[in-house]
């Protein structure tokens, strides 16, 4: 399978130990194209069984935003909980809601 390195845009051989994939979105890249030091590089090349995670720049950026995303998620969960409580108390029955959704089709 021919893939291009996300860093240098040259061909990657995915079966080669010098090539890896982003653990999040699976884009391919050459390990040498990563901004990592020689020691790290050697560890990675020696270990066929990877214990290190690689992330492309896009995913790294996303991970940095993760605490914020998690906070949003918590807020959404809290919102849904509140909504459920409100629904129970409201006059709209579950059946009426289902009927309304079915009508839309
Ligand atoms: Zn490359
Ligand atoms: Zn990625």
TrEMBL record:
Residues 4-60 form the Zinc finger PHD-type domain. InterPro entries: Znf_FYVE_PHD, Znf_PHD, Znf_RING/FYVE/PHD. The keyword Cell membrane does not apply. GO terms for molecular function: zinc ion binding. Keywords: Metal-binding, Zinc, Zinc-finger. The keyword Nucleus does not apply. This is Zinc finger PHD-type domain-containing protein.
